[in-house]
Amino acid sequence: MRGEATVLHADLDAFYASVEQRDAPALRGRPVIVGGGVVLAASYEAKARGVRTAMGGRQARELCPDAVIVPPRMDVYSAASRDVFAIFRDTTPLVEGLSIDEAFLEVGGLGRIAGTPEQIAARLRERVRAEVGLAISVGVARTKFLAKVASAVSKPDGLLVVEPEREQAFLHPLPVERLWGVGAVTAEKLHRLGIHTVGELAELEAATAERLLGKATGSHLHALARLRDPRPVDTTRRRGSIGSQRALGSRARSGGELDLLLTQIVDRLARRLRDRERACRTVVLRLRYGDFAKATRSRTMRSPSDRTTVLLAVARGLLAVAQPEIAARGITLIGVSFSQLVRADSLPPELPIDWEDGVRLDAVLDAVRDRFGASAVARAGQLGRDPGWSTPLLPEHE
After folding, report:
1. Which domains does the chain carry?
2. Could you give the CA distance from residue 221 to residue 297 in angstroms, rounded to a whole number?
3. How does it assemble (predicted)?
4. Model confidence over 163-181: pLDDT tens digits?
C-alpha cells in the first residue's frame, strides 16, 4: 500500500455560478442562481441562504428573493472546463476526469521537478485562478476517496492535505454523509441504526455492515470507513458512453413536459455524438422517482446510429414503458446516455436512397449551431421554455 499522500482531487467551486460571476463583475458577492425552473447551480452567497442544486425555482426564490437568476450557458462552461483540464494535464500526465468540473491527479514521482504534493496543489490553484479566473478546491491524500473528502471539507477555495498518519483522526469524526456512495436514503437508514459518524460505522464488523445495508453497499462503505481504497488514478479509461441529465424538482410533470425534456437531452447528445464522429448502439434512460429510488432502462439497437430521429424514437419507447411507474411514484430526475460507442467511419455506408430527411436535417442543424451557437435554432416545443441543463453525467472532455 502506498505510504505517501500523492493523490489530488481538484474540484471547481460552484462551477456554473462562479463562471457567471467571473464574466459579470456586477454579480460578484451577490447570490446567483443558474436555471429558473430548477436550480442547476448556486453561488456560495445563495447557498448560505439555503438554496441547493436541484431545488425547485419557486422554493429557491422564497429562500433568497434577492437572488439574480441567470440562464445556463453550457458552451461557456464547457470552454472553461477545457481550459482547467489543460492545466491539470500540464501539471501531470496522470489525470482522471470525473465530471466537467472535477478530476483526480496523481503527482507521485514529481518531487524533484515540481516539489511536494502540497506545493504542486497550491501552484495548480494559483494557475486556475490566474489563467481561467475561477476558484478551485484541492484535497491531497494517500487514496482517491480521502482526497475527494478532503477537497469537499476544504471548500470553498481551499487546500487540505491529509497526511497518512492522521487519516483516521480526519475521517472518523465526519458525518457518514461524507462517505462516497451515501445518499439520503442510506444516510437515513444509518441514522435510524444510531450511526451518525464514519467512525461509528468503522466500529462495526464487516459482516454486520453487509447485513444492515446489503452486501455490496455494506462492504463498500465499511471498507471506506476503515480507510481501504486501493483504486489508482485511472488514465487509461476511454469514454464508453456520453450522457446528460435534468433535475426536475418535486412538482408533478405531465407526459408532454417529460417528452420535451427527453427531446432536449437527446438533441444535445446526438449532436455531441456527431461532433466526436461517433455512433452508439445502446440507449439508456435513467430516472429518479419521487421517493428517490433510481431506475435504469436500456435498449440495444441492431446497428449503431448517430441520427437524432432514431435515437429519440428509442428513448421515447423506453420512457413510454416507464410512464405507469412515473405516474404512481412521481419523478425528480430524467437522464439519457448513449453507450457502446463506435467510430462513425466504421459504420457500413448507406445508399442515398436510405438517407431520409432526418440525416439532412441533422447536418443542417449542426452547421447552424456550429456557426451561430447552440441556442440559435430550437424545436418549436422548446420556445419560451427554461433551457437549463444539469451537470453532465460524464466528463465533457476526452
Report:
1. 1-163 (3.30.70.270), 172-225 (1.10.150.20), 241-382 (3.30.1490.100)
2. 26
3. Monomer.
4. 999 999 999 999 999 987 7
Burial label, 282 (beta-carbon count in 10 A; 0-12, 13-18, 19+): middle
Q: Active-site residues: which are they?
A: 102
Q: Is the pTM of this model over 0.70?
A: no
Is 101 annotated in some ligand binding site? Answer: yes
Q: Which of 35, 13, 118, 134 is nearest to 84 (CA)?
A: 134
User: What secondary structure, in 3-state letters, does 163-227 show?
Assistant: CHHHHHHHHCCCEHHHCCCCCHHHHHHHHHCCCCEHHHHHCCCHHHHHHHHCHHHHHHHHHHHCC
Place of cell 511536494: 116
Identity of the highest mean pLDDT range in 16-20, 113-117, 371-375, 381-385:
16-20
Measure the CA dihedral 104/108/111/114, to 10°.
-30
- In angstroms, rounded to a whole number, what is the distance separating the alpha carbons of residues 193 and 209? 11
CA R_g for the chain: 22
Q: b/e string for 284-312 if b means 16 or more Cβ within 10 A?
A: bbbbbbeeeeeeebeeeeeebbbbbebbb
**Residues 120, 125, 128, 129, CA torsion sign:** negative
